[in-house]
Design a protein that fits this description.
There is one protein chain. The chain is built from twelve helices and eight strands. It has helices at 6-15, 17-30, 39-51, 56-73, 81-96, 127-140, 155-168, 181-194, 211-226, 246-258, 277-284, 306-313; strands at residues 115-120, 145-149, 172-173, 199-203, 235-241, 263-267, 289-293, 301-303. Strand 6 (263-267), helix 11 (277-284) and strand 7 form a beta-alpha-beta unit. The protein is elongated, with a radius of gyration of 21 Å.
């Protein structure tokens, strides 16, 4: 451990409290009357993980790993189950992902142009809030930020983003509702280049009812930005609502088909017992979870660290 400050760790523990409580209650029923981890315990553990929104595929991978451990170590007591789960889930995530992000860092671009993050996700997942909190964190890290309000299909989206921009004191580029999103994205990148900004956050429309339209729209936004910054977007961040459990899996599937998602943010984990979804999504999509939302406060968006996350989830 040791990567998070004491305050960050306490906030993470608090944010995952509902998921932890739910998992522990289910696990306690699994081991009642049992002294060793046998086939019946493993069958019940499989059910616990699936009902905790870890996902079927990832659950089976975890169970397989624990079966190998029990076969190798011969005798494992049920009192060791929490530690065993913690170790195997952490190892699984370690194998299937890139390095952890420790701070709100902005990579240096090879061409010296702003680092452009295009933010995607359906309406209601906390996309606008995530952009505002990211802008705040980047600014705290000493980076200059420009926000682009390219979700022009909802007046509320533009207004909400404008409130966040004012709150964290960063410039926002916007046009009126119904404007061409690609035009807004172009103006934003152009403004950021002129201002020599470090990072650009582009909001996009959150609609999934027609994948072809979504794909075409996001492709157009990319192409227009690339006229100014050939490598833009440097990152496509998909925001998912962790409290929706399996529905978040489906949204991840749809968006990864529609565009090249390179990073994930899971929001609203503090208000749900479905935090296990982070494990499944991180494992199955092989796309790094970079950020998690564990509260409503401006500092309640954290970088995702696998070891710290699993430690908080199974802390006794």
């Amino acid at each position: 451990m040791g990567l998070f400050s004491k305050t960050k760790k306490e906030n993470l523990d608090k944010g995952l409290a509902k998921t932890k409580e739910s998992v522990f209650k289910k696990l306690s029923r699994v081991v009642v009357g049992k002294s060793t981890v046998d086939d019946e315990v493993l069958d019940n553990l499989e059910e616990v993980l699936i009902t905790s929104d870890v996902g079927v595929e990832t659950t089976l991978r975890i169970i397989e790993r624990i079966e190998k451990r029990t076969a190798r170590d011969k005798y494992l007591g049920t009192d060791e189950l929490h530690t065993l789960l913690k170790e195997e889930i952490a190892a699984l995530l370690q194998e299937n992902n890139t390095r952890d992000v420790i701070e709100f860092e902005v990579p240096q671009t090879s061409d010296g142009l702003p680092y452009v993050i295009m933010v995607v996700g359906v309406n209601g997942v906390g996309k606008t809030t995530t952009i505002g909190k990211l802008a705040h964190q980047f600014k705290k890290a000493g980076k200059s930020v420009v926000i682009g309000a390219a979700d022009t299909f909802r007046a509320a989206a533009i207004n909400q983003l404008e409130i966040w921009a004012q709150r964290v004191d960063v410039p926002i580029i916007k046009q009126k509702m119904g404007s061409d999103p690609a035009s807004v994205a172009f103006d934003t990148v152009q403004s950021a280049i002129t201002a020599k900004a470090d990072v650009v956050l582009i909001d996009t429309a959150g609609r999934l009812h027609n994948k072809i339209n979504l794909m075409n729209e996001l492709s157009k936004v990319k192409k227009v930005m690339q006229k100014l910054a050939p490598h833009a977007p440097n990152e496509v961040l998909l925001v998912l609502d962790g409290s929706t459990g399996q529905n978040a899996f489906e949204q991840a599937r749809q968006f990864t088909k529609a565009t090249e998602v390179s990073a994930l943010a899971l929001t609203k984990l503090d208000g749900t017992a479905k935090g296990g979804v982070v494990i499944g999504i991180s494992d199955q999509f092989k796309i790094p979870v970079k950020y998690i939302g564990i509260g409503e406060g401006i500092d309640d968006l954290q970088v995702f660290n696998r070891l710290e996350f699993v430690d908080s989830l199974f802390k006794q």
